[in-house]
UniProtKB/TrEMBL annotation:
<dbReference type="InterPro" id="IPR036291">
    <property type="entry name" value="NAD(P)-bd_dom_sf"/>
</dbReference>
<comment type="similarity">
    <text>Belongs to the short-chain dehydrogenases/reductases (SDR) family.</text>
</comment>
<keyword id="KW-0560">Oxidoreductase</keyword>
<dbReference type="GO" id="GO:0016491">
    <property type="term" value="F:oxidoreductase activity"/>
</dbReference>
<dbReference type="Pfam" id="PF00106">
    <property type="entry name" value="adh_short"/>
</dbReference>
<dbReference type="InterPro" id="IPR002347">
    <property type="entry name" value="SDR_fam"/>
</dbReference>
<protein>
    <submittedName>
        <fullName>NADP-dependent 3-hydroxy acid dehydrogenase YdfG</fullName>
    </submittedName>
</protein>
Length: 217
């Protein structure tokens, strides 16, 4: 199969949906992996109605079936040119309220699930492939009332650096885009604008590759 393909992990409304539409507009096939049946189905139906090839899986990315689900999508597409990772957990707890089990559960989704996704698609991630991650200003300027989110975003950015160092000799690069603003329906931090920033980060010149790209709107 020669058509390029993107796999979006954490698919649904917002940035992940906008990114799927953006690649679809360029003629790419799209894989959608998410845990909300209705949200994934609506996005898949929209893309399919536009003539886009879509493959879907419904799964909890912290569960035991996650790797198999991501792998099935990749295998049905036949190749992966871009893997995009979007999940994170928002839990309104400050550090005195946040329990260790809750922190670890959130990190399992916002950081650990990236490992699951990358390891699952690696056999089908082509040379020249890209791994992109939706980052956040919470990595550097966390809100204390959502303490686990800052830990997740700092951790996933750190993991991206390691993934890039591991895969770059195989012609595969990884990048996180740090969104330095609050997402909104319109304006510079709308999902469509952030999606454009993610696509631009994936298309960086290899000689000047940065594993973290800030998006300031």
């Amino acid at each position: 199969m020669s058509t390029r393909a993107v796999v979006v992990v954490g698919a649904g409304p917002g940035v992940s949906g906008s990114l799927a539409r953006r690649y679809a507009a360029d003629g790419w096939s799209v894989g959608l992996v998410g845990r909300n049946v209705e949200q994934v189905a609506l996005l898949a139906e929209e893309l399919g109605a536009a003539g886009v090839r879509v493959e879907t899986e419904i799964v909890d990315m912290t569960g035991p079936e996650a790797a198999d689900a991501v792998r099935r999508v990749a295998e049905r597409l036949g190749r992966v040119d871009v893997l995009h990772f979007n999940p994170s957990a928002f839990r309104e707890r400050d550090p005195l309220e946040l329990s260790v089990p809750d922190l670890l559960a959130d990190v399992a989704l916002g950081v650990g699930a990236l490992l699951t996704a990358v390891q699952a698609v690696r056999p089908l991630l082509v040379e020249g492939g890209r791994i992109t991650v939706t980052g956040s200003m919470a990595a550097d300027r966390p809100w204390h009332r959502a303490a686990s989110l800052g830990v997740q975003k700092a951790g996933v950015r750190n993991l991206v650096h390691s993934l890039d160092a591991t895969l770059r000799d195989d012609g595969i690069r990884a990048v996180s885009v740090t969104v330095n603003g609050t997402l909104g329906d319109d304006g510079p931090f709308s999902p469509d604008r952030v999606a454009e920033a993610l696509v631009a980060a994936a298309r960086q010149d290899e000689g000047d590759w940065r594993t973290e790209v800030p998006y300031d709107g």
